[in-house]
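Protein modeling request. Please complete all fields; requests missing the sequence field cannot be processed.
Requester role: graduate student
Desired output: 3D structure, token encoding
Chains: 1
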Amino acid sequence: MVLNRRPAAEVEVTDSLVQGLLLRQHPDLAGLRLRHVSSGWDNEVFRLGDELAVRVPRRALAAPLMDNELRWLPRLSTGLPLPTSAPVRPGRPDATFPWPWAVVRWLPGTVAAETALDDPRRAARALGGFVRAFARPAPDDAPANPFRGVPLAARDLALRDRLARWGDTAAVEPRAVLARWEQALSAPAWGGPPVWLHGDLHPGNLLVHRRRLSAVIDFGDLTAGDPATDVSVAWMLFDETERTVFRNAVADIDDATWRRARGNALAHGVACLDSSADHPVLAATAHRTIASVLTDRG
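Delivered output (298 residues):
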């Protein structure tokens, strides 16, 4: 079973590069201590002083995603039940760096993919409340995304291709995955108006502080569409009892949306497993998600 690795950086984002951007564009912040804290698929993150962070794209594909965050997230974050990584200062391309970047709030904690929750039911209620509050009707000019918020049929070919490529060496049972996938595909499509979506709501984009769910981060896939996309986090983080708590907190989830959400979780788990060759935490989350979907009695 041959798995893929994280995409390579197209620009080396160093401390000195970020320091220079701050000096030219936000000189009042340039004297704060700067230190690199994480490297994701799309962005490098640096802590800036005690209360801020800097998110800088590491590849061209992330540039329009950063534009979306800068434009939309500050207004969408108002009144939400959990803090978000909303930009507080915009960063512009210049002669030393080709893409937009952002100064954001520093939110303490570690990602839920690596941290146990002291009360998963409380976390399920909190996250369900967040999903409900965020899923407001979206305007016609909301960011489009070819992979998030779309009908499940749009993800069908990629899922089948991955399973076929894995073949008999897969760490999951392809026939079981396909059977559950077909159940999700048979659910009626979303017929309501597009709603705002985080777009990539999974345990790696949720923070836990003092063992409590504390924040939602990384809105690079911000988009609008089928609410089942964000509801799918229920299978990535919670057990069956906790999922019921989550569903009740989101409220008004019909059975078709729940089935599509389970399908989205399965597609996400397969995609993450396929790209986890150099990321054991991602692999563990993928296995957990797939197992949750396959053993779900709903």
